[in-house]
Amino acid sequence: MSDTGAPKPSSSVKLVLLGEAAVGKSSLVLRFVNNDFQENKEPTIGAAFLTQKCNLPSRTIKFEIWDTAGQERFASLAPMYYRNAQSALVVYDLTKPSSLNKAKHWIAELQRQASPGIVIALVGNKLDLVSGNDESGEGAEAPARAISTEEAKAYADQEGLLFFETSAKTGEQVQEVFEAIANAIPEVALKAKGAQGMGRGLGGSAGEVAPGLSMNEPNTKDSCAC
Amino acid sequence: MSEFTLDDELLNPDVLVLGSGLQETYLAWQLSTLGLRILHLDRNQHYGGSQACLTLNELESFLTSSSQTFTDATVSRINADKLKSPRQYNLALAPHLIYPKQKLYRILEQNERVEVYSWGVVDGFFTYVPAGEEGKVGDSGVSGKLAGAIVKARKWNRRNRSSVASMASFASTETTTSTAPGEEPARDKDDGLIPRPGWNQGRFRRAPSSEEDIAWAPDISDADRATMGQFLRSTAVAPPVGPSESDSSNEAELRTLLNHLTETYPLPPSLISRITSLLLTHTPPSTLPLSIAMQKLRNHASNLATVTNVPSAAALIVSYGQLGEICQDWARLVAVNGGTNILGRHITSLTQHDNTVSATLNSGETVTAKWVVGSEAELSGLANVDTLVGRQTLRKGIYIIDRDLEQLFAFKGAEGKVQQYQLPSAAVLYYPSESVGNENPILVMARSSVTADCPKGQTVLYLSCLKGTAGVDGPMDKAVETLLDGCEWNLEAQEKPEVVWKAQWNQIVGTNAKIDGRTLRLGELGGDLSVGDEVWENLDGWVDMLAEGKGKREDDGDDGEDDDVDEEEREKRRLEKGKGKATEEEE
């Protein structure tokens, strides 16, 4: 926390993970969080969220990455999971057809529930299984690709989503996903978040962590929601 | 939901938690932190139990479905055309405020959950004073003696008004039209809400909660001002009984707030009501034990000026789901700790064994756990825990208004620094007994659209009142009408704001927890508009018991015998911690 590295503006961005169970949501995050910084952040299983910085030329984005913690398994994700999320990573398994349908479901849910300005990246994971580059012996017969790049890309374009195919296993394109998200987050959204910092801090005894200033936040959300 | 199958591991948890209200989720979360395996179910398709926050449609169907704790509901779509999409409403069953120094906030703080929520500020505590009552206020005359105070107040108000545009237009009418009979014109220049002439002669007065408030309130006579000041100072002192008293302890116990404020600190009824509005309790001052009242007042006073966003504010609210939001967060933490949450499931039978309890789910499976914990709604009729103690029934109401009631959410005082501060997004209104035909006081929590309870341009009013012998729905309507009538809300659109939707229901509150074998039924939270610290003490006890020695709970330094020392220590630590950070964030 106390590293005062570059004087670049730095902002926190909440990112939520969504997708069918076992498509590799957590693995993607662990790959991103562990790879990027030498700073030893143990892969905290059981953390409410993980954080990772993403350095852009003009600013630093600190991702607060929220995992579903398995709540999606029984369709028991709470609405508060989406709240104030400025970005979302919707993951499917490109060897599993049903997982794209599920991803579409989550995207619809995000478009309904989350902030209108939310940056959504659609990510087809497990690229290693179909690219043939990675011949790890343990996988038995490699499953065939079930979702073509074109099909998913067309859907992403139509919905205005960022689109990537990744491998959490090899790390291919993982960093790129997060950088693309960081770049896509509008400056305005970051400023609003910055203003939030100002409101922080209950006076004295109530502690230094304080209610974020959120006077306009929900409103901005709702104003375009209808 | 049968597509989800539960494997053996899930069906044999350490603790089966039923319901996802504030208490159940706290318990489940704490136990999961200690490494216990939790299966956490809720019969509804949403989290929150009696503290849930729901969309309009969800609330309508929740209230009209049968339940033991929520009964006799009526829902009316009065002007459906003006309702926005149902999903734009986040309506709370528990519209509580949160004091920064109360245990609930400290739990969030200690677990670094504070920043997860969007917080709002409560600034205004208003009391409705009917026209007749006003005459009893400070007969000594506002004129001569108070002139100085009025000038001060004018300046004060001008500053506020110039900063909040709507306030300014609001103010300009009151100076010219204060013609209500029996009113002295000078009295209109206070910071209360002034009725639109001819509509209503009652008025809403701010609760004077600090010495400055008392010093500057132009509607308090000098004599009362002194008494108020003395009383307020007395609340800061620990002993709950007035300084000059020689009551025997028995007598002290029987003493009510009303006794105290008519005998020891003689104040007129309207001022007593204004003080009572700070207590967030439904019990009228005539039956409210003094010791409890003093404790609540001390709590309020100790929280004054702790919110830097709005210096005059003492309390916070959680935007969106209020307590329901916290329930959702804590339920998620259960999952984060390896537990499993499943919505839409409940148990249909419960069998106690020597060291386990087994329960049959509505989906057919049998769960065997070491303990079963559940809310009243989840366990009713299933366990031998039906003797309820301390039961109170509230009549509650939610009214959606088709207008921003901005004056409720204006600053009390900002010294021209409005830009720097967060606008209040919630206010409390207090209607004393009999003021609108009500047997018991009506409490109103008003929340602006900034809280996301409703779409922009609307306001949500949450009403609650102890259910007495007489009906409450009429008085509740009247209370809302009084508010809508009584103020010049919008000069351009002359038509009155109106209620577009309302719901009313009975809700059982304040029941005790009860244990039977290995089944623990948690009671319903009390009826106050804030969550008392005692709730957590009890829950922590249950956590220890259920954990059965597993993963000794960390001492949070809060349970010490000497609270004052702890408090000081904490402040010191915070200040130290805060220093480095504060300077860093300053620029």
From TrEMBL, chain A:
Gene Ontology terms for molecular function: GTP binding; GTPase activity
The organism's place on the tree of life at top rank: Eukaryota
Keywords associated with the record: Nucleotide-binding
PROSITE patterns the record matches: RAB, RAS, RHO
InterPro entries in UniProt: P-loop_NTPase, Small_GTP-bd, Small_GTPase
One matching Pfam family: Ras
Keyword set includes Nucleotide-binding: yes
Family annotation (NCBIfam families): small_GTP
UniProt-listed PANTHER family: PTHR47978
Name recorded for this polypeptide: Ras-domain-containing protein
Phylogenetic lineage: Eukaryota, Fungi, Dikarya, Ascomycota, Pezizomycotina
UniProtKB/TrEMBL annotation, chain B:
GO (cellular component) term, any one: nucleus
One of the GO BP terms on file: small GTPase-mediated signal transduction
Residue span of region Disordered: 164-210, 548-587
Pfam families named in the record: GDI (PF00996)
Any GO MF annotation of the entry: GDP-dissociation inhibitor activity
Lineage: superkingdom: Eukaryota
Acidic residues: compositionally biased ranges: 556-569
Feature: compositional bias, Basic and acidic residues: 184-193, 570-587
Biased composition (Low complexity): 165-180
Family: Belongs to the Rab GDI family.
Annotated protein name in UniProt: Rab proteins geranylgeranyltransferase
Organism expressing this protein natively: Ascobolus immersus RN42
